[in-house]
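Project standup — Tuesday

K.O.: blocked on the structure for the chain from last sprint. Re-posting the sequence here as requested.
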Amino acid sequence: KSIAEDEKNRNNFANYQELKRVDRTYDDTIFLGRPQSIDLIGNWFAIFDAYDKQMVTWVSKDLKKTKRGFTRGIGPGEFSGGIKFYPSKNENKISIFENGKKSLKTYFTNDVLSDDFSHPVSEMNIELSNHRTIPLDFYYVFPEARIDKKLFSIVNSNTGEERRFGEFSGETTSNFHADSRYIYMLYQHIVDVNQEKSIIVCAGTESDYLALYQVTDNKINLLKQYQTYKTDRNINEFEQGVSAKPNDSTMRAYIALHVGKKYLYALYIGCKQIELKNNRSAYLQVFDWEGNFVKGYKLDAPVYDLTVDEENKLAYTIFTGPEPHIRVYQLDGLK
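H.V.: unblocked you, prediction finished:
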């Protein structure tokens, strides 16, 4: 399929299938404080939800049991920042990235489920990145726009060699009034990887940029890229420093990615910053691993993050409103 056809289908939100939740959790069975992310690890959901002395709430796949883990602190085996999980190809190991740390540690999955962090399998030192960092074989990948007009970096963890990839036009809106060193404040992205296929997925949080790159034979090849509008943010340089903030025209785009074996799932807001307060929905876009748009869903709530059980075609999402909960959707129409 041509990129024009795929982009037309992706942007035709009126044709997205409307979904209502088929299940949800309630405070009297599963308490969530301020949940920020959800991942499916084995038969448990890991929800980053820091309160009391622990950081993660574990919820069983049947949504009936819960436990707490990941002790808060700065000592060995303790955590103090945001946590993101990255499973290995065979899922018997989990890499954990903690915001603010200069390392990415890998553990056996069973140890993570048992809350035992005393024996990491490996630890990757990350000196170049202050951003969320994703492992890919012996590389790590992170988003950071720079004045070289590239959006992302991939670093060889053995040699330290850094390569830049991901093109942007270099054009800025009339609201950009700052030195080009601050281009990273304009272009904000999220990244994830398909470990099995060595594919890097990149998506814009305030532009509808979405691209898939494949790493083969030490080369980074673009598979497919979407973009129909660019970021509109106020970036102003003052004598005291630089400020960055959205304006009423800033569109909110991609907020979460889930890498499945069959498909890529992308959670998309699709409204202006000024409309967020009254927004009552979210969009779920599904792509195959060649980057082709497969299907779009309109969800009945402004959910924040997701993970997918592909075998049962169920999307588990996080609702972060006045009553935080897990919200479940049946993904009809997928093969």
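K.O.: great, moving the ticket to review. The chain has a mean pLDDT of 92. The longest helix spans residues 3-11.
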